[in-house]
Amino acid sequence: MPSFGSRDQLLLQRLKLLHASLTRSLPLEAAIEGVLRSPGSPAQRRFYARLLHGLRGGQSLAESLRQADPALPGMVQGLVAVGERTGQLPICTRYLLTTTTVCWS
What is the pLDDT of residues 64-89, one digit of tens each? Predict the structure, then answer.
């Protein structure tokens, strides 16, 4: 497993939340609301608040992720978009979480 920096750790944490919500049939908005109610860093709270705002505004998950974190790697955005279009979002998020050789930028 590669050694991850703090930004990569944050990305993995966000992907884990997304994947857990999808595989447990928990509505994503409810999972995000739970994160916003729990303690967290200001940057993390801003990310989830922007993500929730985009979803509630009718944007796709991929669009909401892109707006919540413009520096999000294109591979993540692309796989989320593919998962949404194909109905295979849990498979795509699992792939992102289990990939061992990742180029985040």
Answer: 999 998 888 888 889 999 999 998 98
Residue 105 CA neighbour count, 13 Å, CB half: 5
Which structure tokens are listed for 36?
């916003």
Whether pTM exceeds 0.85: no
Burial 13-43 (b: 16+ CB within 10 A, else e): ebbebbbebbeeeeebeebbeebeeeeeeee
Residue whose pair of structure tokens reads 């998962």 in the numeric block = 83
Given CA atoms 99, 72, 68, 13 in this order, what sign does their dihedral have? positive
C-alpha 69/C-alpha 17 separation (Å) is 16
Compute how many other C-beta atoms are within 10 angstroms of the C-beta atom of residue 100: 6
Residues in the chain: 105
DSSP conformation class of 72: S
Q: Residue 24 and residue 10: Cα distance in Å, rounded?
A: 21
